[in-house]
Amino acid sequence: MKTIPLILMGCGGVGSQLLQHIVSCRSLHAKLGVHLRVVGVSDSKSLVVASDAKQKELDDNLLTEVCRVKSDGSSLSKLNGVGECQTFSNSESRTEVLGIASLLGKSTGLVLVDCSASSETVGVLKQGVDMGCCIVLANKKPLTSTLEDYDKLVSHRRFIRHESTVGAGLPVMSSINRLISSGDPIHRIVGSLSGTLGYVMSEVEDGKPLSQVVKSAKSLGYTEPDPRDDLSGMDVSRKALILARLLGRCIELSSIRHDTVGCPIFEIRNRHRRCTQNSMHTSSCLLLTLSQVMMKIESLYPEEMGPSKMSVEDFLNGGLVKLDNNIEERVRNASLNGNVLRYVCVIEGTRCEVGIQELTKNSALGRLKGSDNVLEIYTRCYSEQPLVIQGAGAGNDTTAAGVLADILDIQDLFP
């Protein structure tokens, strides 16, 4: 039986669902000859680890209790004294995780699984790489940190998996990697990578006001508590940046400016450096001047309606309706051209943009309805008819399943 020790960082919706998947799949994994040994679990306040990280694990009863505690909104510190485990405060967690990584990284092996939404895990992950650990990510922030951090995390490509950072459990990363490895160059990627914005754009296409659609999406649980977190486009931009870096674009988020109508346009610029040989795919890296804009991100609300200037309630009750006419006009103009509007990312050559685009009705993106994600990939082999990847691109269950598949995908690295 092959044993894979792991530490889970982040035990919110996705992390808890991952633990439930691990417990429920024990018999399946046993048939595959694999056992996932959960050594530790952390949230933002506490860390719970097995009493003997080298030999023992957090058993399934304790993992189930972890999920129950988190579903109640409590901290893992509540598990102090429960079962054969030790609990540590947030200030002690980093040292303890790195201690386990040092103990197991280059002996039995260890997977650091990041299902948090924090940028504070980057330091631990980087040190884990130096200690021989494997990295599995659902958290987008480590891969959209500085290029220096990115290069370190991907320095050993066989040791990192991050399928769930883009498209939840959809086979986006694996498909792109297979295309590149086969020598089929990717010329263009167009994708609707936000279930929320996909739903919004397909609904306004049917003539509904943007304000009504956003409120409906919020009531259905499609948006964040503050819908501006979705409407800003920043979540899509992080996914687009991950894809662009995967294609060898040496770019990073560096500044914010505003266009003439007041909507934030985030510039991601080239850092005027050559990609190191640790980058995912260096052959297609572009060397551009610092002044050349690499990415533009369109926000669906102006700066004066931002979180620092308007409460959520004021935005929903007064600000949002002021955006209706602009979107209605854009929908009408697109329709006159025989097209539809979709909020997408476009990566092509030196162009990398995130925002509303006019697309043909008969394309996969043009036919998109509801909250699915759709990605069109154009290559030499897929030049006229793109490779299309479509399906549920959000949800704790789907994302956790993608993380679990990533962990199993690196099992050959373990003794």
Automatic annotation (TrEMBL):
Source taxon at top rank: Eukaryota
Pfam families with a match to the protein in the record: Homoserine_dh
Catalytic activity: L-homoserine + NADP(+) = L-aspartate 4-semialdehyde + NADPH + H(+)
Signal peptide limits: none
SUPFAM superfamilies: Glyceraldehyde-3-phosphate dehydrogenase-like, C-terminal domain, NAD(P)-binding Rossmann-fold domains
Binding site for NADPH: K140
Binding-site list for NADP(+): G10, C11, G12, G13, V14, G15
Record key words, sorted: Amino-acid biosynthesis, Methionine biosynthesis, NADP, Oxidoreductase, Threonine biosynthesis
Pathway: Amino-acid biosynthesis; L-methionine biosynthesis via de novo pathway; L-homoserine from L-aspartate: step 3/3; Amino-acid biosynthesis; L-threonine biosynthesis; L-threonine from L-aspartate: step 3/5
Annotated catalytic residues: K239
Domain Homoserine dehydrogenase catalytic intervals: 171-408
Molecular functions per Gene Ontology: homoserine dehydrogenase activity
Binding sites annotated in the UniProt record for L-homoserine: E224
One GO BP annotation of this record: threonine biosynthetic process
EC number: 1.1.1.3
Entry similarity comment: Belongs to the homoserine dehydrogenase family.
Entries under PANTHER family matching the protein: HOMOSERINE DEHYDROGENASE (PTHR43070:SF3), PTHR43070
Protein name (Swiss-Prot/TrEMBL): Homoserine dehydrogenase
Species per Swiss-Prot/TrEMBL record: Herrania umbratica
